[in-house]
Write a structure and sequence with these properties.
Chain lengths: 422, 303
């Protein structure tokens, strides 16, 4: 590298530093804090100088490193190789993962905390798979998916607390309700173009949340619904001392009572629900409607000229995605035994979208990896909650910049002409 | 009647704020065809910069008009830096990527900005003492006295001045001509020797500066801000941009006014709890039945 280049990159780094100073100076450097009446400023110049220094250094190193280009290609090569491996060995990978998931509750190191995290990850995997039908297969960016999650949770909670029906009757009903909402909301908006559709679905998500907060008579407003019945093991409740005339799970199987029974049951419940979602998606991709989704995603005009009705096709994707969201919602309600509108904010939608996008739109394995990564690993750093969301958003930007199709890009057509395999 | 006039005045004030934010959406949409989802958060950053500068200058005891002018300039300058950086980091590398990529990137940027401010400034709401108090009172003999505060007059006049400068910038200067040329055909503009990247950067800078002014007005008008204000304000301003016809600058201002009025009247006459539902419903109805808005051009899909 010549001297001129070094001076040039040095200047460039200083400019970066100047911008960084302007960015961090007021917002980070001058922290406002309330003290008695009014606000006061606490300067934090140390942090600012640290951040600015890091920016200058980072920029300088990037400039110096002329092999930056090869690194980026190395990165994408690595990930494409990785996705090729998972692609080839998809069957083995899936079987290993499912086996691991099945034995997980009985592994020696698995405790209550691990189980809770695993249940949460599985819930997100299921939501991710449900949304993947809409975003990954049909190519419709839905930023209000949490609305269907909420509809499922609330309809489960309301039916179960009002009529006292069992989980297994309420679950399909909740799914149907969510699918119905999907059709109701989807019908008018699905003619819209991609980005408009995203904003409109976001609007719907917010409207549903505002209605949940304000419709006291039905939803109990911000206080939410409490005392949602827990699921039972085919009629055997998980209770230490069952009501008269009832046999509880541990008595029936002659086990010592433990709260873990219920947790493990919930774990298997969500595992089965998630796997059903996955199985359904894999099968429907090979049916005409699934093929029509993917075709629509790639080229809507071509589809129209071939006689595919875009509105109906999109509507089925929307409704089916919503139905799985509804299932996940009822699981959430029965697990928590308490729901309130707070659980269904926009950020929840954003997390689910992030899972689908980061995993690679349309890739089922990608959703699993992204859920484990985003929910599991960040769960370990619970104390850094706020930083977690920064990392979340940052990851979304970085993935779009470097690997716009996600970590495991799987947009390989499911059918090829003349068995053409390239 | 008096109540109606009061709501009208409040609606126009609110509409000015939304209009200024909406310009940023509409300009960016016009030039690169993406919804800058992070624009609402740029507005929020502007509000925070304004709040911080108000506190600092509040201690010095300088005369109020000078403080207002200085805060205005400072907020514009620092917020413009944010707009510029966001474009460079998150949108520029994505030109020519598939259609939803910039939107997802913008969504990520919005999450980053929100949580960054939450970490840096704390999650609590920030109250500020009113700087401009007092106002004119009308219909003193009737039951309901209509008050037009000096602050509302200030906001509306400042909006009109900025709109004047901005219109001049877009219609009369080379910069505006380059901007409009990029909107029509980016490749052709580049062939004619105009630096397209620079023009896009300037678009973001101008949009962010206007949003920061809206942020300053928001601080003064409501007296309370937090890191989350950008989300709702952003959605409403986007609705305004769509209502006026996305890509059209006078449309953005018109749409802003309409959204401000709809929201205030809805809150005043129908239901206060559902006032945000009004904005969202307008958004949905407009997009479905009326996607070109009032002053927009129809969007023709080409193969």
């Amino acid at each position: 590298m010549e001297k001129k280049d070094i001076i040039q990159s040095f200047k460039d780094s200083l400019f970066t530093g100047l911008i960084a100073l302007a960015l961090f100076g007021p917002i980070v450097g001058l922290r406002t804090a309330s003290k008695g009446e009014g606000l006061f400023i606490t300067p934090q110049w140390g942090v600012v100088f640290l951040l600015v220094g890091l920016c200058i250094l980072g920029r300088f190193l990037i400039n110096l490193n002329s092999s930056r280009k090869t690194e980026i290609t190395f990165f994408s090569k690595f990930t494409s190789k990785f996705s090729a491996i998972t692609e080839d060995k998809a069957k083995h990978f899936a079987i290993t993962a499912i086996l691991f998931a099945v034995v997980f509750p009985f592994l020696p190191f698995t405790d209550r905390y691990f189980m809770d995290v695993a249940i949460m990850i599985l819930t997100y995997i299921m939501l991710g798979w449900g949304l993947n039908i809409v975003v990954g297969l049909a190519g419709l960016l839905d930023l209000g998916y949490v609305a269907f999650y909420a509809v499922g949770a609330y309809s489960y909670a309301l039916i179960a607390t009002t009529f006292g029906w069992s989980f297994w009757i309420c679950l399909p009903l909740a799914g149907l309700f969510a699918a119905f909402f999907g059709i109701l909301l989807g019908f008018p908006v699905l003619r819209l173009r991609g980005d408009y559709l995203a904003i409109v679905t976001l609007g719907f998500g917010e409207i549903i949340r505002i209605i949940l907060i304000n419709w006291y008579e039905v939803t109990n407003g911000p206080d939410g619904i409490t005392g949602i019945p827990r699921p039972s093991f085919f009629g055997l409740p998980f209770k230490r001392s069952p009501d008269e005339g009832e046999t509880s799970f541990h008595l029936f199987f002659n086990l010592e009572y433990s709260t873990m029974h219920r947790i493990i049951f919930l774990y298997y419940l969500i595992l089965v629900l998630a796997l059903i979602t996955n199985y359904f998606t894999l099968k429907i991709r090979k049916l005409p409607v699934g093929r029509a989704w993917e075709a629509l995603r790639e080229d809507e005009i071509a589809c129209k000229s071939l006689g595919v009705n875009p509105t109906n096709t999109k509507l089925t994707a929307f409704a089916i995605g919503a139905m799985f969201g509804g299932f996940a919602g009822s699981f959430f309600a029965t697990r928590q035994a308490f729901i309130s509108p707070e659980s269904f904010t926009f950020i929840e939608s954003a997390i689910i979208v992030a899972i689908v996008v980061l995993g690679g739109m349309g890739s089922q394995t990608g959703v699993v990896l992204a859920s484990i990564f985003l929910i599991g690993i960040t769960e370990m750093f619970r104390d850094l909650e706020q930083y977690r969301m920064i990392a979340f958003g940052g990851a979304m930007v970085l993935i779009m910049v470097f690997k716009p199709k996600g970590i495991l890009a799987n947009r390989k057509p499911t059918i090829l002409m003349h068995g053409d395999k390239k | 009647m008096e109540y109606f006039i009061q709501q009208l005045v409040n609606g126009i004030t609110l509409g000015s704020i939304y209009g200024l934010i909406a310009i940023g959406y509409t300009m960016v949409y016009g030039i690169i065809g993406m919804i800058n989802f992070a624009h609402g958060d740029i507005f929020m950053i502007g509000a925070f910069v304004a709040l911080i500068s108000f506190i600092i200058f509040g201690l010095t005891g300088v005369a109020l008009p000078i403080i207002l002018l200085l805060v205005l300039l400072i907020a514009m300058l620092f917020t413009a830096c944010y707009g510029w950086t966001v474009e460079k980091l998150a949108y520029k590398p994505l030109r020519g990527s598939f259609r939803l990529a910039p939107l997802i990137s913008a969504l990520g940027m919005s999450i980053v900005l929100q949580n960054y401010v939450q970490v840096a400034q704390g999650a609590r709401v920030k109250p500020m003492q009113p700087l401009i108090s007092g106002g004119l009172e009308f219909f003193k003999n009737s039951e309901f006295i209509v008050t037009v505060s000096y602050l509302q007059i200030f906001i509306v006049i400042l909006t009109i001045i900025l709109m004047g400068i901005f219109t001049y910038l877009i219609t009369k200067t080379d910069l505006g001509r380059a901007q409009r040329a990029c909107e029509q055909d980016r490749t052709m503009t580049a062939l004619l020797g105009i630096n397209v990247d620079r023009t896009i950067s300037i678009t973001f800078i101008v949009g962010s500066s206007l949003a920061s002014v809206a942020g300053m007005m928001f601080v003064l008008y409501y007296g309370v801000i937090d890191f989350y204000i950008g989300f709702l304000a952003g959605i409403k301003a986007f609705t305004a941009a769509v209502l006026g016809g996305i890509g059209s600058l006078p449309g953005a201002m018109l749409g802003g006014l309409l959204i401000g009025l709809i929201e205030t009247f809805w809150a005043g006459y129908v239901s206060l709890e559902y006032k945000d539902v009004a904005a969202f419903s307008v958004l949905i109805v407009v997009l479905i039945f009326f996607p070109t808005g009032f002053l927009g051009k129809p969007d023709i899909e080409k193969v």
